[in-house]
Amino acid sequence: MDKLKKLGILLAVLAVVCIATIIVSSHEIKKEKIKASDDIVLEVPSDDVTKLSWEHDGSKLSFSKKDGVWQSDDDASLPVDEDKINELLKLFEEFGVSFIIEEPEKLSDYGLDQPECTISFSTSDKDYTVTLGGFSTMDQERYVSIDDGNVYLVKTDPLDAFNKTLDYFTKSDEIPAPETADSIKVSGSEIDAEYSISYDVNNSAAYSDEDVYYCNDEALDSEKVKSYLEAVSEVSLDNCVDHNFSEDKLGDYGLDQPVLSVDISYPKTDDKGNKTGETGEYSFSIGIDPKDKDKFDAQGKLLEDSSEDTADTASDADSDKENSASTYIRFNDSKLVYKLSDEDYKTLTAAKLGDFVKSELIPSGFDKAESIDFELDGNTYTFTGNKKLVGGTDWSYNGSSVDISNIQSAIEAVKANAVTDETPALKKELSIHLKSSDSSHPDETLDIYRYNGSDCILVSPGKNSKLVSRKSVVALCEAVYSIVLG
């Protein structure tokens, strides 16, 4: 009985070994169907593709080519970046693999029963489906099916390219970058008063050949205007937050009451930079997210963090992050709205008239000055200039030669910091009358009135009134007194 029992046990062990051998052999047969390869399994010219769609993470994107132009099937009016669509399709012009798994038994072994992404595209005569399965951590490659009965491992993972949202394929607005603008109209709640800038190379109010931009025939700082136009053309449009904007969304982005609206017209040019005689136009508006209104002052200026001077770098970074506000820009009548960086917001909203006026107290300078009168406390002090034979001017006061370099330095230190429509109501601090020896440069007459403890109002006929530092005005008065009372 014991012998029979032992024999039975031996037969059972033998059966288990046989079964294991069969399983291992079967597995070896299956392994033999996996082989390395450098085959190109798809060769579809991107120009031949007329439809493209894919599903990933529960969402679907779909595009069709109509009359040779790609458009979104969800919104035909959406501007599509065709270069980005073509980048996707180039993957399948020579779609190569590294391993072939022939006659796979279970698609679930490769994550293809519940694929990560399913890509479909069509030409005029054939439809294609590329299914992306799991990721082989051993090979660091993606399992892929192209509906030919095989499973492939690919070195270039298509999911890297297709893991995008519709915003990525939305073509940004094209911002013109003209060298000059015929006119610039500025308005908005951030602007004290609506105004216009015009381009004129023959205006008699010019101080120099560089003066080409004017507001009400007052020469502006043309370099500041040019810099602003350049800043507009370089604003970042990488963060599109709405690609299907409609008028009922104005309030969502603060564009129902924009802090700034700018309309620009400019001369169009050809590829060689020559003017074509045609005029181009574009405009933009900037709004503040209603939820972030408390991060701005009444004029739309982004408030600075009170702890910005702290020595703790990490705390500074946290404060900057907290102070970051949502501001938006929209060009023309575009369906696209972009979020602005804080830096771009500050740059573009620096568009008050005071940001473009000449900051110099006497823009014409001293080169062509024949005499300068200073009126202080009811007394007038006249300085007379005599041109030297070789550059420069000799100055005299009451017939005596004087060095007015300190006066000149004090005048150059007085800078306009804003335009104001306030009417002077306090004491006149100083009057200046500069007589020019050049008939093409008009004489300068300046009246400076006390405004408050920190500012004075500068008034000049035919020009905008400006605010200047009272401290610098007092320093100028002292420079004059140091000579006339010395």
Structure, explained:
There is one protein chain. The chain has about 475 residues and is of the alpha+beta class. It has 8 helices and 29 strands. The strands form 4 sheets. It has a 9-stranded antiparallel beta sheet. A 9-stranded antiparallel beta sheet has the order 15-14-13-12-17-18-19-20-16. A 9-stranded antiparallel beta sheet has the order 24-23-22-21-26-27-28-29-25, with helices on one face. A hairpin with a 5-residue loop joins β22 and β23 (about 395). The longest helix has 30 residues, at about 1-30. The protein is elongated. The model is unreliable at about 20-30 and about 305-325 (pLDDT under 50).
